[in-house]
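Posting here for the record, re: 6-O-phosphono-alpha-D-glucopyranose.
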Amino acid sequence: MCGIVGYVGKRDAIPVLVEGLHRLEYRGYDSAGLAVLHRGRLAVTKTSGRVQDLRDKVAATASGKASSGKGSGKGSIGIGHTRWATHGEPNEINAHPHTDTAGRVAIVHNGIIENAEQLREQLTASGVKLVSDTDTEALAHLIAAELTGDDSMSLEDAVVRVLGAVEGAYGLVVLDTKHPDQLVVARNGSPIVLGVGENEMFVASDVSALVRYTRQVIYLEDGEVATIRANDFHSTSLNGAAAGEKTPMLVDADALDYELGEFSDYMSKEIHEQPDALRRALMGRLDERFATARLGGINLDARQLRAIRQVKFLGCGSAYYAGQMGAHLVEELARIPADAEPASEFRYRSPVVDPDTLYVAVSQSGETSDTLMAVQELKRKGGQVIGAVNVVGSAIGRECGHGIFLHAGPEVSVASTKALTNMAVNFALLALLLGRVRDLSAAHGERIVEGLRNLPDQVGRILAAEAEIASVAAQFAGAERMFFIGRVRGWPVAREGAQKLKEISYVHAEAYQAGELKHGPLALISPEMPSVVLIPSDDLVAKNISTIEQIKARGGPVIAVTSADLPEGLADAVISVPKAEPELEPILFNIPLQMLAYHAAAKLGRDIDKPRNLAKSVTVE
Ligand code: G6P
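Prediction output follows.
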C-alpha cells in the first residue's frame, strides 16, 4: 500500500525522506516521489521505479547532472510518497506528490477519494488543467484555491475546508510554499503517525519510517487534522471539536528491528526469529499453578468469560487462517462453538451479531481496512469484540479497546510468518484461558502449559533442518501446481501453506480437506501435480496414510509433513516435525510449509519480500 513520509526540522530533508521511503518499500508500491521546499520554491522529483531510482535521480539533480528545470535541492521541510496505484496507471505523472498549477502547494495522499470524479470535473469546468489521472491532484488544486488571495487563511483551515467536501478515505500531508515552517496532516481511514524529535518533527504512515530518528510517536485519530512545526504540533478534529492533549508514546521497536543483519531478505529473517517471537508471546502468560493462561489485555473477568457462548475470529489472508487455527483450539480446549470468517466477507453480508459471542479481530498490522470495518460494524450492533494485533496503537487495537497483543516484533515481509505463528500461539492461550474457566481439567491444562513451553525449542529444531527442507523445495519447485492436503487440525495449516506458496512463488496452490479429495479434486492428481500432505500424530494418522495411498495409486508425487512414524517408502519426500501436544501441533506444522514456500520461491528467483501485486497491509477497499 502507499506510504507517506514528511519532515520538518533542521536537517537536509531529502535523505530523511528517501530513507523513510526506503523503510516503507516493504508495504508494496509501484512509483515514488518527493517534494522539498528550496529557496521558497517546490522542488519535486518522481519516478515510476523503485526508491533507489528516486535516490539516484535526486543525487543526479543535486550534482547538476539532470537537465530538467525541476528537481530537488536542499531544504529542511519536505514530503515523500510511495504509491500503489488506484486512480490511473503507475507512471511518473501519477506518482505523488501532486501540486497545483502554480506549484504553490504539494500533497501526498494514501487512500481513495470517492467523489474524485466530481471534484475533477468541477476543477476542469473552472478552467484548471489537470495533468494526472489521480484523485489526489484535485486536492492540491482545491487547497491552493482556498489559500490564493487570502493571506490570513491558515494552511490548516484551507485543508479542513477542502476536506469538508471530500468523501472517502485519506491519510495526507500538505506542504505550502507560503507557510514554509509547517506541514498539515490529516487522517480519515488511512494511518498517520507523528514522530517527535529534538527540534524536529516527522510524519509517516508507518512507524518503520520513523524509528531511525525517534521512538516518541503520536498516532493521529480518524477525523483529526494536525499542524506540525519543528518545535511544536497541535491537532484538532476535522469537525471543529478540539482534540485532547496528545502525549507521545514510546514505540516498542527500534531501527535494528528493521535491519536485515545476516539475512538476505526479511522473510528468511522473520522465519528464523520465530523461537524468540514465541518466547515473547508466552512470557509471563503461563500460569503453572492453576494450569491456565494470563492475558492481561482482556478486560473480562471469569464470570464474563464463562458467559461467552461462541467465539468468532475475523481476519484477512493469513490472519484469517490463523483465526481458523484459533477456532479449532477454542473448540477443542474450551468446548465452545467457534469458527473463523474472512473480515472482508463479514463486513458486507449484514451479519447477525450475537451479544454472547466473543468476536476476535485478528490483524498483524492492525490497519487492514476490511478488518477495521468489520470491527466497526460489530460495535454498531453491540457485539463484544477484542483485538489480536501486533502493532500497539494501531487502528484496530484502538477501536477494540482491549485484546491480545501478539508480541511478534515488527514484521516487514509481505508474507506473514512470525506474526501468524504468534497469532496461533496467542489463540492457544485464549483457548486455555476459556477452557480453564469452564470444563478443562487442571491435568489437561498442565499438559497444554507444558506443550506451549516446549514450542520455541521445537520450532528451533525445525529451523535447524532448513537444508533438507530446501532440497525438497528445489525438487518440486518446477511444478506448475500443487495440492496442500490437511484433515481437521491440519486443514487451516494446509490453507495457509497453499497461500504462502502461491503468494511468493506464484505456483498455483490449492488446499483441500483430505476427506474431500475423493469428492472431486482427485481428478486432478497426476505425476505433474505434487501434493503436500500433513499428518500430525493424532488419532487420524491411519486415515491420512490412506489419503497418501489414494494419491500414490494415481501417480501423484507426495511430500509428507509429519510428526508420526510413517511406513518406509510411503511418500516421495518426508519432512519431519517434532511430536508435540496434539492440539498444538498445527503451530509447528506451519513452519516447514513457510520454508517450503520460501525455498521454492528462492529457487524460482522471485522477489520474496515484495511479491507482485501484493501489499503488506491493505488499507483500502
Ligand atoms: C494483506 C497481506 C497478507 C495479510 C493480510 C492481513 O493481504 O498481503 O499477507 O495476511 O493483508 O493483514 P493484517 O495486517 O490484517 O494481518
